[in-house]
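Lecture 7 notes: from sequence to structure.
We start with the chain below.
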Amino acid sequence: MRIIEVKENKKQYLDLLLLADEQEDMIDCYLDKGRMYVLDDNGIKCECVVTDEGNDTLEIKNIATVPQYQGKGYAKALIDFIIREYKKKYTVLQVGTGDSPLTIPFYEKCGFVRLHIIPNFFIDNYNHIIYEGGVQLRDMVYLKRTL
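Predicted structure tokens for the same chain:
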């Protein structure tokens, strides 16, 4: 298993990026300014995009695992890599996600705690209704982990 930084042609992973962020123009808002990593384990299994948000804060903007490989620890391995890679440069790793029974427990298991909520984020910023784990996403939940 190896983790590779993608510096060019990031859109070659658009199908994977769209698993975590269903609207391409939203991905376009952070993809160029972010650093992208892919996890290769006999083929690409997972990707992650992180951005510098200032104030010693790094943010996970997108993280997704190929569906048939979900639940096998690839996203956790990528988060662990991000923590190791950036802990000397940042004090906080944060992530914004939908209030979903699939994502919130995953991040909490990775050591994140709830920070704040942006009400109606998914309703105001996406051109379609998004469901995850049978729940309509409305609010953006921010979680953080101290590095």
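Points to note: The chain has a mean pLDDT of 96. The chain is about 25% helix and 35% strand.
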